[in-house]
């Protein structure tokens, strides 16, 4: 059986009609007289500083939870959309985190920011080959029975790797592919 993939999982959107960062009218007044000034100072010293939050570098794989995922230029709704994925389960490498946003890198090494709610830690893998298809074997050996012929960009559940073979699951069947034929494996 041959399983087909599709490279057309990503779309580039039109530029946003509105947007921009918060304006000064969204902020509280800077001074409220002597009493307000003291309250403001005590407020800053008594609450945790969220403004000093840093971008934390990480390195793990995740996948898209939704069938449509916007990838933004920065960590927030105010940043423009760089492109949109129109497919669920695409594996991405999470390279940094900020607040409830993750910076991700896709199989083409393009980066952008995604809300954490749109990602799942469920591991997936994507077939990435220059050949017409690769074979999914019953065991981690070229001599074992071929279960499927997998085309480029097919997405599978990632189960783990052993030596230079990775165990994946497609349409309820588990099988083995060469590690260098998939994106989503760092083992």
The average pLDDT value, as a whole number, equals 79
Query: What's the CATH class of one domain, please?
Result: Mainly Beta
Q: How do the strands of the widest beta sheet line up side by side? A: 8-7-6-3-9
* Parts with pLDDT < 50 across at least 5 consecutive residues: 12-51
Question: Can you characterise this structure?
Answer:
Among the domains are: 54-122, SH3 type barrels; 125-183, SH3 type barrels (Roll), CATH 2.30.30.40. It is built from one helix and 16 strands. It has one helix at residues 33-46; strands at 2-3, 10-11, 56-64, 69-72, 81-85, 91-98, 101-105, 111-115, 119-120, 124-127, 134-137, 146-150, 155-162, 165-170, 173-178, 182-183. The strands form four sheets. The chain has a five-stranded antiparallel sheet, with no helix packed on it. Strands 15-14-13-10-16 form a five-stranded antiparallel sheet, with no helix packed on it. Strands 1-12-11 form a three-stranded mixed sheet, with no helix packed on it. A hairpin with a 5-residue loop joins strand 7 and strand 8 (111-115). The radius of gyration is 22 Å and the shape is elongated. The two termini are 28 Å apart.
Descriptors:
16 strands, 187 residues, mainly beta, SH3 type barrels
What is the gist of this entry?
By secondary structure, the chain is mostly beta strands. 7% of the residues lie in helices and 41% in strands.
